[in-house]
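User: Please predict the structure of the protein below. I'd like the answer in structure-token form so I can feed it into my own downstream comparison script.

Assistant: Understood. Taking the following sequence of 206 residues as input:
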Amino acid sequence: MQADTILPSRRLERIASVLRDGRSHAIGDIADRFGRSGFGFVILFLALPALIPIPGPFGLVFGSCLALVSLQVLAGAEHLWLPRRVRAIEVDGGKLRNGIGHAADWLRWTEKWISPGRGPPWLLSHLRPVAGLPVLILALIIAIPIPFGNIVPCVALLFFALGLIAEDGLALAAGLALGFVAVAWTAFLFVAGGNLAGSALSMAGL
């Protein structure tokens, strides 16, 4: 296991520990502390809100942001890139620490399914570089306004995120498998929706 590979909740706790001074911190400095696992955390934090069926263009917003992150993974980036203006934004350390604390509590519950460095080395070395492609496809699905269409893609993204954070090859493999299920589910919703629309038009005599 790599020295940099630890449980997601532990990594958040380490970052929260440097926010105890109560000062404001630049988003860029905080992102740098996540290191290579920053991609997984961003995917995690974007996929969780998209999992909730909230009316409005939220799926489009979260899906677009996820697509930008996936392109960085596809490009082989080692650290999350953020625009200079975004990096310069400062956030209150106390509020951020509280938010990170709540996220760490939730992650502890998920860690029963993941294990840092799990799986043969070849599995992680092959899956991580190409993980950006299924994440991109899932992000595009989330951006499409389909009723109940976000649930399966978001669950797949959660496994991808946890796998990237903990360097867990089996979690990445589970995310890939769920990604195929998500594509099939989306196709089913399209076909079912088209059939329902066609039936409704026929009944209306149009």
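That's the full token string. The two ends are 63 Å apart (CA to CA).
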